[in-house]
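Incident log, support desk, overnight shift.

02:14 A customer reports that sequence design results differ from what the structure should imply. Their input is reproduced verbatim below. On-call engineer (initials T.W.) acknowledged and began investigating.
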């Protein structure tokens, strides 16, 4: 099974990807996670990406395509994969089309998550992440709050708000999504790959995707 998950930041792509990984035994490829890893490691890709990420802008397509070409060639991708947060622009989608052709791979579906904007803003600005790099547990002030404010339930380290989850940056990321990524919905609709689901609960969106994939 080869899937793309499309949806605004905070629409639940990460959570739903993990559910799809378990259901279909495929790997999740999150460009956001790969980039955050590169920033933390201080690699040359990380150094190039960091300023864009802090502003809520997209990292240049050339950097992303370099990462993706290397990742899709790894052997764990052969049973299938789910792309979470990629492609984010029409040029990335076109380049992905060329890359898949080169690797003789075919997409099964592009799942588009439609989640109300109010739900997304509350979810992202309320997220708190454990500052301990070996824990990184995630809490949410709206629903999954830690037992003690600002303290990780699992390891007792301080919880922090990621720079790109502050409200002004969240709004910038949503604008970037509307301008640059939302056009992909029409792009994949024309290609006949689009499968749209609507709602705000990740579990219910996942159930709808599985029902529509019919496998
Ligand atoms: P995410 O966790 O997917 O929301 O990604 C966090 C940040 O990483 C985004 O706000 C972008 O700055 C950058 N990023 C992730 N994926 C991409 C992509 N496919 N193209 C460009 N930038 C990306």
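02:41 Re-run completed on a clean worker. Output:
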């Amino acid at each position: 099974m080869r899937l793309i998950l499309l949806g605004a930041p905070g629409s639940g792509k990460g959570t739903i990807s993990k559910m799809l990984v378990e259901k279909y035994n495929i790997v999740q490829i999150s460009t956001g996670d790969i980039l955050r890893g590169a920033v933390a490691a201080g690699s040359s890709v990380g150094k190039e990406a960091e300023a864009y990420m802090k502003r809520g802008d997209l990292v240049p397509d050339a950097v992303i395509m370099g990462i993706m070409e290397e990742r899709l060639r790894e052997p764990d991708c052969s049973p299938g994969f789910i792309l979470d947060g990629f492609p984010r622009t029409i040029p990335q989608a076109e380049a992905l089309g060329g890359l898949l052709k080169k690797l003789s791979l075919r997409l099964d579906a592009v799942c588009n998550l439609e989640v109300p904007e109010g739900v997304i803003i509350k979810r992202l600005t309320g997220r708190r992440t454990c500052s301990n790099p070996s824990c990184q547990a995630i809490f949410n002030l709206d629903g999954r709050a830690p037992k003690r404010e600002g303290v990780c339930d699992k390891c007792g380290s301080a919880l922090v708000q990621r720079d790109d989850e502050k409200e002004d940056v969240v709004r910038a990321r949503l604008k970037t999504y509307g301008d640059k990524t939302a056009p992909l919905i029409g792009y994949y609709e024309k290609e006949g790959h689009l499968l749209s689901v609507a709602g705000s609960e990740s579990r219910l969106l996942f159930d709808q995707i599985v029902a529509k994939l019919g496998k």
